[in-house]
Design a protein that fits this description.
By secondary structure, this protein is an alpha+beta fold. It has two domains: 4-102, OB fold (Dihydrolipoamide Acetyltransferase, E2P) (Beta Barrel); 130-233, no CATH class. It has helices at residues 86-102, 111-123, 130-144, 190-201, 215-233, and strands at 4-16, 20-27, 32-37, 57-63, 71-80, 165-167, 172-174, 186-187. The chain has a five-stranded mixed barrel. Strands 7-6-8 form a three-stranded antiparallel beta sheet, covered by helices on one side. A hairpin with a 7-residue loop joins strand 4 and strand 5 (71-80). Helix 1 (86-102) packs parallel to helix 3. The radius of gyration is 20 Å and the shape is elongated. The two termini are 32 Å apart. 34% of the residues are buried. The model has no long low-confidence stretch (mean pLDDT 94). This is DNA repair protein RecO. Pfam families: RecO_C, RecO_N.
Protein backbone atom coordinates (compact mmCIF):
# COMPACT_ATOMS: atom_id res chain seq x y z
CA UNK A 1 0.00 0.00 0.00
CA UNK A 2 1.45 3.43 -0.92
CA UNK A 3 2.11 5.90 1.90
CA UNK A 4 -0.44 8.52 2.92
CA UNK A 5 0.60 12.12 3.51
CA UNK A 6 -0.80 13.41 6.81
CA UNK A 7 -0.67 16.51 8.94
CA UNK A 8 -0.65 15.65 12.62
CA UNK A 9 0.02 16.86 16.15
CA UNK A 10 2.21 14.63 18.31
CA UNK A 11 0.20 13.72 21.41
CA UNK A 12 2.83 11.43 22.89
CA UNK A 13 6.44 10.51 22.14
CA UNK A 14 8.42 7.59 23.59
CA UNK A 15 12.07 6.88 22.84
CA UNK A 16 12.40 3.38 21.36
CA UNK A 17 15.66 1.47 21.30
CA UNK A 18 18.68 3.61 20.50
CA UNK A 19 17.60 5.68 17.52
CA UNK A 20 13.81 5.52 17.03
CA UNK A 21 10.70 7.01 18.61
CA UNK A 22 7.16 5.75 19.03
CA UNK A 23 4.59 8.50 18.52
CA UNK A 24 0.85 8.92 18.99
CA UNK A 25 -0.35 11.28 16.28
CA UNK A 26 -3.66 13.10 16.04
CA UNK A 27 -3.93 13.45 12.28
CA UNK A 28 -6.01 15.89 10.29
CA UNK A 29 -8.11 13.29 8.45
CA UNK A 30 -6.98 9.78 9.42
CA UNK A 31 -7.76 9.57 13.12
CA UNK A 32 -5.28 8.80 15.86
CA UNK A 33 -2.20 6.93 14.71
CA UNK A 34 0.27 4.91 16.78
CA UNK A 35 3.43 4.91 14.72
CA UNK A 36 7.18 4.55 14.74
CA UNK A 37 9.77 6.93 13.32
CA UNK A 38 12.86 4.85 12.70
CA UNK A 39 16.37 6.19 13.08
CA UNK A 40 15.41 9.80 13.70
CA UNK A 41 17.59 10.12 16.81
CA UNK A 42 20.77 9.86 14.75
CA UNK A 43 22.82 12.99 14.12
CA UNK A 44 23.55 12.02 10.52
CA UNK A 45 19.82 12.06 9.77
CA UNK A 46 19.76 15.84 10.29
CA UNK A 47 16.21 15.65 11.62
CA UNK A 48 15.83 18.27 14.38
CA UNK A 49 14.40 17.00 17.69
CA UNK A 50 11.44 19.40 17.36
CA UNK A 51 10.12 17.21 14.52
CA UNK A 52 9.41 14.37 16.95
CA UNK A 53 8.73 16.40 20.11
CA UNK A 54 5.43 16.09 21.98
CA UNK A 55 3.14 18.90 20.87
CA UNK A 56 4.77 19.61 17.51
CA UNK A 57 2.61 19.83 14.40
CA UNK A 58 4.23 17.90 11.57
CA UNK A 59 3.68 16.65 8.06
CA UNK A 60 4.76 13.08 7.30
CA UNK A 61 4.09 10.02 5.19
CA UNK A 62 2.44 7.06 6.92
CA UNK A 63 2.48 3.48 5.69
CA UNK A 64 -0.79 2.11 7.08
CA UNK A 65 -0.73 -1.58 7.95
CA UNK A 66 -3.44 -4.06 7.07
CA UNK A 67 -2.85 -5.80 10.42
CA UNK A 68 -2.64 -4.40 13.98
CA UNK A 69 0.68 -2.84 14.91
CA UNK A 70 2.68 0.35 14.73
CA UNK A 71 2.41 2.28 11.48
CA UNK A 72 5.65 3.37 9.83
CA UNK A 73 5.99 7.18 9.84
CA UNK A 74 8.57 8.55 7.41
CA UNK A 75 9.89 11.87 6.07
CA UNK A 76 8.56 13.99 8.95
CA UNK A 77 8.86 17.76 8.60
CA UNK A 78 7.99 20.47 11.10
CA UNK A 79 5.00 22.75 10.50
CA UNK A 80 4.67 24.36 13.95
CA UNK A 81 6.58 23.64 17.16
CA UNK A 82 4.12 25.49 19.47
CA UNK A 83 7.23 26.55 21.37
CA UNK A 84 5.74 27.25 24.81
CA UNK A 85 7.43 27.69 28.17
CA UNK A 86 6.37 27.92 31.80
CA UNK A 87 2.66 27.63 32.60
CA UNK A 88 1.71 27.56 28.92
CA UNK A 89 3.92 24.52 28.32
CA UNK A 90 2.46 22.75 31.37
CA UNK A 91 -1.08 23.43 30.12
CA UNK A 92 -0.28 22.32 26.55
CA UNK A 93 1.24 19.03 27.73
CA UNK A 94 -1.71 18.46 30.06
CA UNK A 95 -4.17 18.92 27.18
CA UNK A 96 -2.13 16.64 24.89
CA UNK A 97 -1.91 13.90 27.52
CA UNK A 98 -5.63 14.09 28.28
CA UNK A 99 -6.58 13.85 24.60
CA UNK A 100 -4.18 10.94 24.15
CA UNK A 101 -5.90 9.23 27.07
CA UNK A 102 -9.42 9.19 25.64
CA UNK A 103 -9.17 9.51 21.85
CA UNK A 104 -9.02 5.93 20.52
CA UNK A 105 -6.30 4.72 18.17
CA UNK A 106 -8.43 4.19 15.07
CA UNK A 107 -8.98 5.36 11.51
CA UNK A 108 -11.75 7.97 11.39
CA UNK A 109 -12.36 11.48 10.08
CA UNK A 110 -10.56 13.45 12.77
CA UNK A 111 -10.63 16.88 11.12
CA UNK A 112 -12.91 18.38 13.79
CA UNK A 113 -10.71 17.22 16.67
CA UNK A 114 -7.52 18.18 14.87
CA UNK A 115 -8.83 21.69 14.17
CA UNK A 116 -9.83 22.16 17.83
CA UNK A 117 -6.39 21.11 19.06
CA UNK A 118 -4.52 23.12 16.44
CA UNK A 119 -6.55 26.24 17.23
CA UNK A 120 -5.94 25.70 20.94
CA UNK A 121 -2.19 25.61 20.37
CA UNK A 122 -2.38 28.95 18.57
CA UNK A 123 -4.53 30.55 21.29
CA UNK A 124 -2.75 29.39 24.45
CA UNK A 125 -0.21 32.27 24.57
CA UNK A 126 -3.04 34.82 24.49
CA UNK A 127 -5.44 33.26 27.02
CA UNK A 128 -5.10 34.15 30.68
CA UNK A 129 -7.89 31.89 31.95
CA UNK A 130 -6.35 28.43 31.63
CA UNK A 131 -9.33 26.78 33.32
CA UNK A 132 -11.56 27.94 30.49
CA UNK A 133 -9.23 26.43 27.86
CA UNK A 134 -9.17 23.10 29.70
CA UNK A 135 -12.96 22.91 29.96
CA UNK A 136 -13.77 24.03 26.43
CA UNK A 137 -11.22 21.77 24.71
CA UNK A 138 -12.25 18.67 26.66
CA UNK A 139 -15.96 19.36 26.14
CA UNK A 140 -15.67 19.96 22.42
CA UNK A 141 -13.46 16.95 21.69
CA UNK A 142 -15.70 14.63 23.71
CA UNK A 143 -18.68 15.94 21.76
CA UNK A 144 -16.87 15.45 18.43
CA UNK A 145 -16.31 11.82 19.43
CA UNK A 146 -20.03 11.41 20.16
CA UNK A 147 -19.47 10.82 23.89
CA UNK A 148 -21.39 13.88 25.17
CA UNK A 149 -22.06 15.86 27.21
CA UNK A 150 -25.74 15.76 26.23
CA UNK A 151 -27.52 18.43 28.26
CA UNK A 152 -30.90 19.20 26.72
CA UNK A 153 -32.99 16.50 28.40
CA UNK A 154 -32.98 13.62 30.85
CA UNK A 155 -31.22 10.75 29.13
CA UNK A 156 -33.55 8.25 30.80
CA UNK A 157 -37.07 9.67 30.42
CA UNK A 158 -36.58 12.59 28.03
CA UNK A 159 -37.88 15.26 30.41
CA UNK A 160 -36.43 18.75 30.04
CA UNK A 161 -37.21 19.71 33.63
CA UNK A 162 -35.30 19.31 36.91
CA UNK A 163 -32.02 18.32 35.25
CA UNK A 164 -30.13 18.25 38.53
CA UNK A 165 -28.02 15.11 38.07
CA UNK A 166 -25.27 14.00 35.71
CA UNK A 167 -24.18 10.57 34.54
CA UNK A 168 -20.80 9.95 32.95
CA UNK A 169 -21.99 6.52 31.85
CA UNK A 170 -24.92 8.01 29.91
CA UNK A 171 -22.92 11.06 28.92
CA UNK A 172 -25.20 13.78 30.21
CA UNK A 173 -28.06 14.97 32.37
CA UNK A 174 -30.56 12.95 34.38
CA UNK A 175 -33.65 14.45 36.01
CA UNK A 176 -34.44 14.35 39.72
CA UNK A 177 -37.16 11.73 39.11
CA UNK A 178 -34.86 9.26 37.33
CA UNK A 179 -31.50 9.58 39.07
CA UNK A 180 -32.18 6.53 41.26
CA UNK A 181 -32.33 4.43 38.08
CA UNK A 182 -28.75 5.41 37.25
CA UNK A 183 -26.55 4.60 40.29
CA UNK A 184 -23.50 6.38 38.87
CA UNK A 185 -25.29 9.72 38.52
CA UNK A 186 -24.36 12.54 40.88
CA UNK A 187 -25.91 15.82 41.96
CA UNK A 188 -25.09 18.82 39.78
CA UNK A 189 -26.50 22.32 40.27
CA UNK A 190 -28.67 23.28 37.31
CA UNK A 191 -26.76 26.54 36.93
CA UNK A 192 -23.63 24.46 36.32
CA UNK A 193 -25.48 22.59 33.59
CA UNK A 194 -26.16 25.99 32.02
CA UNK A 195 -22.45 26.83 32.13
CA UNK A 196 -21.63 23.56 30.33
CA UNK A 197 -24.20 24.51 27.69
CA UNK A 198 -22.50 27.89 27.36
CA UNK A 199 -19.11 26.26 26.75
CA UNK A 200 -20.69 24.03 24.13
CA UNK A 201 -21.98 27.08 22.23
CA UNK A 202 -18.81 29.17 22.44
CA UNK A 203 -16.23 28.64 19.66
CA UNK A 204 -12.72 27.85 20.85
CA UNK A 205 -11.42 31.11 19.39
CA UNK A 206 -13.79 33.10 21.61
CA UNK A 207 -12.80 31.48 24.90
CA UNK A 208 -11.05 34.71 25.94
CA UNK A 209 -14.49 36.13 26.80
CA UNK A 210 -14.46 33.86 29.88
CA UNK A 211 -12.49 35.88 32.39
CA UNK A 212 -12.87 33.76 35.51
CA UNK A 213 -14.16 30.35 36.63
CA UNK A 214 -14.57 29.82 40.39
CA UNK A 215 -12.81 26.74 41.75
CA UNK A 216 -16.00 24.90 42.77
CA UNK A 217 -17.56 25.46 39.36
CA UNK A 218 -14.36 24.35 37.60
CA UNK A 219 -14.18 21.16 39.68
CA UNK A 220 -17.82 20.33 38.93
CA UNK A 221 -17.45 20.93 35.19
CA UNK A 222 -14.29 18.82 34.99
CA UNK A 223 -15.91 16.10 37.11
CA UNK A 224 -18.69 15.82 34.52
CA UNK A 225 -16.22 15.61 31.65
CA UNK A 226 -13.82 13.27 33.46
CA UNK A 227 -16.65 10.88 34.38
CA UNK A 228 -17.46 10.58 30.67
CA UNK A 229 -13.79 9.93 29.91
CA UNK A 230 -13.45 7.33 32.66
CA UNK A 231 -16.50 5.44 31.44
CA UNK A 232 -15.23 5.20 27.88
CA UNK A 233 -11.62 4.30 28.66
CA UNK A 234 -12.76 1.58 31.07
CA UNK A 235 -15.08 -0.12 28.57
Amino acid sequence: MPPTRVKAIILKRINFRETSVIVHLLSDTNGKIAGIMKGVRVSQKKIPPLVYQQGSCIEAFVYFRSKPGLELVTQPSLLNSFNFSGENLVLWKKILSEIDRFVPIARFNSKGIYDILSETGILIPYIKNQRAIEVIVTEKILFELGFGPFLEKCLICGSKNNLNFFSGKLGGTVCSHCYAKEPTSFKLPEKHVQVLKFFHRVPVNQVSMVKYIPETLFKNLMKCLNEIVLYHISE
